[in-house]
Automatic annotation (TrEMBL):
GO terms for molecular function: DNA binding; double-stranded DNA 3'-5' DNA exonuclease activity; endonuclease activity; metal ion binding. The active site is at Y106, D147, H248. Keywords: Hydrolase, Magnesium, Manganese, Metal-binding. This is Exodeoxyribonuclease III. The keyword Magnesium applies. It comes from Marnyiella aurantia.
């Protein structure tokens, strides 16, 4: 089974790219972030024609998450994180597919620092941490997948010194990610490739993709019940180079 995560940076504007990627790589499940489309404008019919059933949380202009599946309709179990009822941002969608619980998430960026956006990011992280602890102790097969907007270590960014004051790389943000993983989650890509240079995002500016000046901010965290099934992982880096593509590349894992 191949499960992918992809920050599409606008599901309708990038639809030809997404459909081409689905056709060429055929993931069984695809978690999408940053839809930038209201609920009624999600292209469900196009995905269905491509063989994928979908559930999604839209939001006008910003955010938005979706889960596509070609192995059965995803069963929604949660459409947001507990702890802040007034937070209406579409950033968390938890589903069940077969024996897997899959959480598709889009963690806030947090820039500029300091400020309310960074404060919101840290509160969101705290809420994710609390809910993830409940999931990791459930003894179920759980996957947290998506754009975490965190570069966990210096290996995960091309020039760490340039991001010392960035909300994706501040010590307290990396500590929050470390604490989350410390609950018992496994970083799927780093588990298989502990020392390799792996990036999932390249800015549109200064020919970042061409220079491979990237960062790794899209992650798979696996519960201990899933880890024995992990047999492969990677980044579809070439998709980032396609015409009118997102600034992220799809990331995937393969399970037995």
């Amino acid at each position: 089974m191949r499960i992918a995560t992809y920050n599409v940076n606008g599901v309708n504007g990038r639809l030809p790219v997404i459909l081409r990627w689905l056709k060429e790589t055929k993931p069984d499940v695809a978690c999408l972030q940053e839809l930038k489309a209201p609920q009624e404008k999600f292209p469900a019919a196009d995905f269905l024609a491509a063989g994928y059933q979908a559930v999604w949380l839209g939001q006008k202009s910003w955010n938005g998450v979706a889960v596509l599946s070609r192995i059965g309709m995803p069963e929604i179990s949660r459409t947001g994180l507990p702890g802040e009822p007034e937070d209406e941002a579409s950033r968390y969608l938890e589903v069940k597919i077969k024996d897997l619980i899959i959480a598709c998430l889009y963690l806030p960026n947090g820039n500029p620092v300091p400020g309310p956006k960074f404060d919101y990011k840290m509160r969101w992280f705290e809420r994710l941490d609390a809910h993830a602890e409940m999931l990791i102790t459930s003894n179920k097969k759980v996957i947290l997948a998506g754009d975490f907007n965190v570069m966990p270590t210096e290996k995960d960014v091309y020039k760490p010194e340039k991001f010392a004051k960035d909300a994706l790389f501040l010590p307290e943000v990396r500590d929050a990610f470390k604490n989350l993983v410390g609950q018992g989650w496994t970083d799927g890509l780093r588990h298989l490739y502990p020392d390799e240079t792996i990036y999932t995002f390249w800015d549109y500016f200064r020919k970042a993709y061409e220079r491979n000046a990237g960062m790794r901010i899209d992650h798979f965290l696996l519960s201990s019940e899933v880890l024995p099934q992990l047999k492969g992982a990677g980044v579809d880096k070439d998709v980032r180079g396609w015409d009118k593509s997102s600034d992220h590349a799809p990331v995937w894992i393969e399970l037995d």
